[in-house]
Structures are given as C-alpha cells and as structure tokens.
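Entry, Tuesday afternoon. Goal for today is a structural model of the target with pyridoxal-5'-phosphate bound, before we commit to ordering more compound. Inputs were pasted exactly as handed over by J.K., no edits. I checked the ligand SMILES twice against the vendor sheet because last time a stereocentre got dropped in transcription.
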Amino acid sequence: MQTVPNHQVENLQIEDDRTGLSVECLKRAFLDNLFYVQGKFPKIATKNDYYMALAYTVRDRLLQRWINTAVIYTERASRTVSYLSAEFLMGPHLGNNLVNLGIYDQVKQAVSELGLDLEDLLEQEEEPGLGNGGLGRLAACYLDSMATLEIPSLGYGIRYEFGIFDQDIRDGWQVEITDKWLHCGNPWEIARPEWEVYVKLGGHTEAYTDEHGRYRVRWIPYQVVKGVPHDTPILGYKTNTANTLRLWTAEAPESFDFGAFNSGDYLGAVQAKMVSENLSKVLYPNDDSSQGKRLRLAQQIFFVSCSLQDMIRIVFRQNVPLEKFHEKFVVQLNDTHPAIAVAELMRLLIDEHDMGWDQAWSITQKSLAYTNHTLLPEALERWPISLFRSLLPRHLEIIYEINYHFLEEVKAKFPGDSDRLRRMSLIDESGEKYVRMAHLACVGSHSINGVAALHTKLLQQDVLRDFYQMYPEKFNNKTNGVTPRRFMVLSNPRLTNLISSKIGDSWIKHLKDLKKLEAFVDDPEFCHQWRSIKSAIKHDLVAYIQKQNGISVNPDSIFDIQAKRFHEYKRQHLNALHIITLYNRIKANPDIDITPRTFIFGGKAAPGYYMAKLIIKLLNSIADVVNNDPDVRDRLKVVFLKDYSVKFAQRVYPAADLSEQISMAGKEASGTGNMKFALNGALTIGTLDGANVEIRDEVGAENFFIFGLTAPEVYALKARGYRPLDYYHSNRELKAVIDRIASGHFSHGDTQLFKPLLDSLLHRDEYLLFADYQAYIDCQDNVSQVYRDRDRWTRMSILNVARMGKFSSDRSIRDYCQDIWNIQSVPIELGECIQAKENMRPITM
Ligand SMILES: *Cc1c(COP(=O)(O)O)cnc(C)c1O
C-alpha cells in the first residue's frame, strides 16, 4: 500500500513545488489530489479516482498559464476572436494537455513509479461528446490552433448535459444510449456563476416613446432563463497561452415564478425550473439535417444571447466604448446555428444599450463573419415564422426591418428583378413562411466562407449564387485543417517519434516541415521502419477488434477503413457493394487470387434517419455472412466497430492502409477525416469532392486513388435524366450484387429487410452509386494490385505524409487571422505572472 505524504513536516517545501514538473513533484501532487480532492487513498481508490487525481494534478499545472493569459488579455484589452459554435467535439482532455504541456513522459514515469499505467488512466476519461461530427471537431481543432498560435480567443457554446448518444449494436442494428458524460464529475471545468446572464423567451413586444421622444420597443417575455458559464482551459502546444472554452448551462432564475411558489404551487414552480433546464439538456443528434424544433431554436438563442452579453460585459470591463465592440471582438459563426446573432446583437445594441439603427447595423456587420458548412439543401436551416414569432417576437421584428433595408439594396443593384428579390429575401414566402438563417447570416456578416476550394466555388455558383452576385467581396475560402497535436503526436506516438528522429520536431508546429521526409523515401532502412510501425499499429487494432467484436483479423490484409457519420451522400453502401462484389467473385471461383482485405466501419446514424440505420444493419449482416463463410478462407473480413467518437478516431486513423472518402461529388463540403487518415500514412480512395481535391493536388495524383464522376458531371447526368435501372441491367457484376442482397442471402432468407434500400437505389439512387459503381470497382482492383508491391505502397504512404503540410488547422487559423479577423498573436510571458501565493496578501475590496 502507498503511504500518504505527511504535510505537517514538509509544508514549506510543498508550497514551493506545488505545481512542479519533476517526477517527484508529480507523484506527490498526484497522491495529494487523490487524498484531498477525491477523498481516497491507494488501497481503496478506483481507477476513476486515479484518473481524477491525475486530471487535477495536470489542471493545477495549467492554471498558472490560464490565469496569466486572462490577466494579460484584460490588461491589454486584446482584440479577441469569439468562435460561436453549437458543437465542440473536444475529445478527452488529459492526454492532449499532457502533450501540450510537454510533460507526457514525466507523468508516465510518475504514475508508473506508483504502480499505475498511464494508458490505462487515459482510457478512463469519459470524453465530452458535445458534437455530432466534422463541424464540432473542426471547432475543437481550431481552439487548439488558436491557443498554439497565441491568438486571443474564446470558444462559446452549450454545456449539454447529454452529448452525442453512445452507440451500441444489437442484432446488427444501432441502439442509442444516453451519454452521461458528467456522471463522474468533470475535472476540467470551472463554473463562473458570477458571470451569469439572463435570456428572454416568448411573450410579446410593446412600442413606446422614450424621454427623448424616440421610438423604442420593449419586450415583455413569457419566460426568462439564466445562463451560467462553465470555463475549460484550452492550452496551446508548448506555449504559455491558455485560452477559454466557455459553455453555458441553462438554469431557472431564483426568483422565477415566485408567485406560483407563494401561492402554494410548489410543483408548478419546480416544473418551470425543469423547463428552463431543458435548454441545455441534450445535443440534437442530427448531422446535416434540420428539423425545425422549437427547443433547438431556443438553444440557439440561449447560447448566442449569453455569449454576446458576455462579450458586452467584457467590453465594458475593459473600458472599451460599446461603439468599438467590433474592434475588440470578431465573432465567427460556425454554420447557421448561431446566425440568430445578427438579430440578437442588433437587439442588444438598440433596445438594451440605446444605440441608433445605423450605427448598430454597422457594428453588427463589422463584427460578424459566417462559415457555411454544407451543400445539402435539407441541412439549410429555416424556421417557420409562427414558431419564430412565438419564441422570438422582437427578433422577428428586427429581421423584418433588416430585410426591408436589404431588399431596398437589392432593388438598387438589380432594378426590376422581382424574382431575385423573392429568392434572396430573408423570408421564404413560397408556401408556409420561413426565416432563412443562411440568408440572415450572409446579410449580417462582413465575410462568408466555405471550407474547401470546391465547396466555396459551388457556394458561389449555386447555393449562394445571388449573394455572391450581390456581395462578391464578402466571399472567401478557408480550407479546413486538423490539429497534428491530437491526431499525430498524441494518437500516433510511434510514427511521431520516427518522423522526429529524422527531421526534428518542428513539424508539430509547422506542418509544412514534413516535406523534409521526402529526402528519405528512397532510404530502405527508413521505409522498413515506416512499414514496421504501421504493422505494429495494425496489430494493436487486431487485438482491439478481437476483444470488441470477437473477430480474428489478418494484420497483413489491407486495412480499408470508412469511419464517419452514416449518411447516404457519404455512400457507405457503395463500399458495401464492393465487398459483395469481391464476395461474389470468391463464391464463383473459390481459388481466385484476391489481395486479403479487412473492411472496417465506424460511425453513428441520426436516430431518426431510417435509411442510414438500415445501411448499418446491412454492413453487420454482410459481416455475419462473409466472416463465417468457409469459401472466403479469411481473405475478407468485415468489422463494424461501435461507438465512433474522438477516442475511437484516435485509435483507428493510425491503423489505416486505405481511407474511404467516397461521397458523391458536390456533397461533402470539405471532410476532415480524409486529412486525419492521410496524415497518419493511409492512402486515399476518393471522389473529387470537398478537400479531397486539394489533398490530391498536394500529394500528387500518382499517390491518390481517384475515381468517379466529378461535380459538373454529376449535375450534367442529373440534368440529362439519370436512370439507375439502366446500370443495373447492363452491368453483370452490379446486378449480381443487388440480386444477392435481394435474395435474402444476408438476411436469413428475408427478402423484405433490405428492400427499402434496394428500391431506393434501383428507382432513384439520388447519390449515384450505380453510376459510380464500375469506376469504384476498377479503382479498388487497382488498389489491391498496388498493395502487393509493398515498396511502392510504403513510398506512396511516406509521400502522402510528407505532403500533408497544408492541412494543419494552424494554416487554416492563420488564413482566418489574415483575411477575416485582422488579428495578431499576443505572446504570454510567464515572467511576471500572477502567483498563487499572491492570495496570501491582505485582500482589498
Ligand atoms: C474527424 C472526425 C469526423 C469527421 O469525419 P469526416 O470523415 O470528415 O466526415 C467525425 N467524427 C469524429 C469523431 C472525427 O474525429
């Protein structure tokens, strides 16, 4: 049993190395926290107690930087980025903080000297799954890069009590389980109730004339909700900067419905409290689709209003006049989820701070910038006017007024074009009336950006064409990126160490330096090491798959991985058609020479998205048959790994040989999974969609497996009239695949189970699987061929990594800083920093 240190004796020394980084200090702090924070000692501590003790030990080492950063930003009233996002898919904090603090190895040693395994403790952390997928993960990567680049920034969002659901697979079907991520406590956040704010909802408005004879509007809400900020430090990589992620929880104001309480309606008052708390209860699990639910709109105004009020508080505290709000803050809107900020900032300036319309409008436009994330029409948010009015009556008035001025502008620029007015209006009046949030964001922002070159081009040509013609100067592209800290240094230490042993570690902050690896691509020793590392990582995943799914996998097979949200446009079912094609070839000729493959899938489907869930069921059904068919002789394996998350992603990306990025061209805005795979040495099979285009340009067409229709070809084919049945009848292998599914071969003879999916393909095939089928199969046959030449494959893998420099989120953030934010870094020196012992001085208030 470990002994608990005796503080009586060592008191003085403790104070001085309270946050020391030596192994001895870390060990003592760890046992200290186990005792004083968790209230445990080693004999009775659980793994979670140990995890918590370690988390607090690391947090203590962050606080110095965090507080210091805040003090310096406040003293200098630094220009600050507010990143508004309904989602932040942060992933586990502990490992990332160890990497960014540069104390991973010391901590590993410290806990191991105490008889514990660091990997084990890292595994304990319940990740905050406060996002659905790419969009939320992008926000998290951007926070990491802003801190690393020493850019003053605040991430603003919602502290959902239930994040994205945990996925279980039962009988091949997805089952959703609530994500109780706060169950064991969250050591990374600090609540700041002193900065609570109030948000109004519902009710009605009244016009009045103020003492200066001006027309004013008063909003009498039906309900008021309190927002309480919870702050999490976001540390930069080997800098002293620690920025803040500020997430809001909704609570009932203490005084709320006191009347009901006094009149004896205690349960009624409690009920009202619960209604308020609902606002931050659960993350909507729909990715790339909008449902128009009242609670969702309430969540949006809740976190946007809290955040803007918080910014105004900061402006006042730093003695910046409100007229200079846009000089202190630039507010980036991550998709349209926070687009209500346009009307809310106007309302705050005009109604709450007595500003005139024109000045308020100028400040609003100068402050806000909008990032579009989608080309899918069903993902464009619009709210029924009646719903909007009942929840946000004042905002609707403001939007009508913005619309009036805006349409006047359109008329002036395009006289006599009434069709254009109808198309561009903030209000959709084609049937039931809607507020169009993307239009509101475009009009109220000074910058509109897409997230990959192709995506931005398609926005300009298609989705936002009218706005591009109206405001060409607002449009710009910011290709997405990913953080190499989490998705290489933390998740792939073996490859990180090999790379750094050859070219040093500057690439971790300057990813373009990976280019230096090209000098080693003809070095046989280096290539051998490269291949052994990939093989070792694959062996780890083999063990994981054996444990999780009970499937034995051949580590020498091609690890062919598609991990992302399930959506028809992403075409996991095209991948399925390839698997069945290979299976049919084996069934027709059991001795056929096939390059062994392991198909690995991961991803969640929106709970209400029937077709996506049916595709998950199909993949699991194929797995059952293929993995157990003696004819296959272990040449093919199909594995569905449940519960895709950031933790999962960190485990899986490094093990991939082949990355599946096979969306129908013109649908994937950017993708970032494609970048994470390639950065870890996977080769990509992909369409010319999203950032795939730019990845291929960077790594070279000869190092990338491209196939399928391009975006213009997709439009042309659809315009001509696409007939999937023609492909079915004229392609023998395709027909055999469809017939095999239809026969019930993968469903115990049930011919109905997959019928909805087959019908949708045969009669509509919106995402052109049949049109791309042959090109995909041919390309996959080529992949199998190339994989047999291991030297060639390794060379391609090295060149992919060497040429991924562009796709660091650091590069994306530098571009945002230069082109949109007009902001410079503010380095933090730890020299004259605030010390914990300053608290010992007499407090003056
Ligand atoms: C990167 C990432 C995504 C986005 O993947 P895409 O392939 O770009 O759709 C989604 N979820 C998690 C957990 C990720 O890490």
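Confidence is low (pLDDT under 50) at residues 1-15.
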